[in-house]
Amino acid sequence: MDEEHVARAALCRLGEPGDSALGAALRVHGPHEVLRVLQADGPLPTEFRRRDPDGYRVRLGGPSAADDLATLTRIGGRFVIPGDRHWPTQLDDLGDARPVGLWERGPVRLRHAVLRSVAVVGSRACTDYGTYVTHELTGGLADGKWTVVSGGAYGIDGAAHRGSLACGGPTVAVLACGVDVAYPRGHERLLARIAETGTLVSELPPGCSPSRVRFVERNRVIAALSRGTVVVEAAVRSGALITARRARQLGRVVMGVPGPVTAPQSAGVHQLLREEETALVTCAAEVIENVGVIGDDLAPRAEGPLQVWDNLAPEPTRVLEAVPPHRPAPESAIARDAGVGRTAVRMHLRTLSERGLVAAQALPGSDSAEAAPGEEAVWIRTVPR
């Protein structure tokens, strides 16, 4: 680690995620100077916008950057900063609120993992419907070689990670705590599996605990890393909606999966779908169409099964519908009900018979379905309409 990495690692301890005042000072003065000023007993640069210096300096004397970096190395992690070869440059869209640095853990480099990525987020108190839809959605994304990004939380987040892992796809969990902290505790095994096959990432140094504010700020990183954000289930007040609106502010695609109109877990998604520039999606193919290559990644259009009469012209269709399905009818009655002349009806009935849609019936007292001279044939429909 060079001096800039060490300085930024130290600043990760002093500031909080999303601190745009700290980001502005870094942009103007660089990490060495900002760290020096914070360690000295003096006024802060004007970029801090009259922030209380004690808000940063009160944390001086805690774990050192060297300690944090040594811990990260011990668990097989990496610390990347803006300008590094492995820095995900889409995070620069956050401006002064971009992370000071990122603490990564896992075999897949974050920048590589999120080149083709979709964020899938939603309610912690999800329903069976939400879990099922999320598994289907993320499994399809994994099959299409798309990385699933989420927050590692209970509910839809966990289902998103599991759906991707079940299909052998890489997944990224953006944490609101250190990458060595298993939170929530019930996801210890899931997070360990992601660390073995995908990527855990955080703005916070090892050992840091989560907080409500850190969860909120974590959402902006999820939104910025991905090409688009899908909300599966979300109540009217939901962190998932914060992620979606951050994504929209960044110019990313925002998508929502509809749910039952009576379910409070989907009320926030339905509200989101009523807003402009939110795409309704129901499967992975529709998600990929929204975030993939224009003109290439088109979702197949849903169509019902092709019926034998689908390609009939209007007049033979009227003739077919005039033939009763349960009792034979004479040609004269069929012509009257269809509003088609007798000669045309006879021609259409023969064509429909060749296609197996109608059949001539034998007249009473006759062994043949062929009408005798002077008599008219009777017909019955052989397929449902």
Automatic annotation (TrEMBL):
Lineage, top ranks: Bacteria, Bacillati, Actinomycetota, Actinomycetes, Kitasatosporales
InterPro entries assigned: DprA, DrpA_SLOG
Name used for this protein in its record: DNA-processing protein DprA
All copies of domain Smf/DprA SLOG, residue ranges: 79-291
Record Pfam families: DNA_processg_A
Transmembrane regions listed in the UniProt entry: none
Gene name, Swiss-Prot/TrEMBL: dprA
UniProt family annotation: Belongs to the DprA/Smf family.
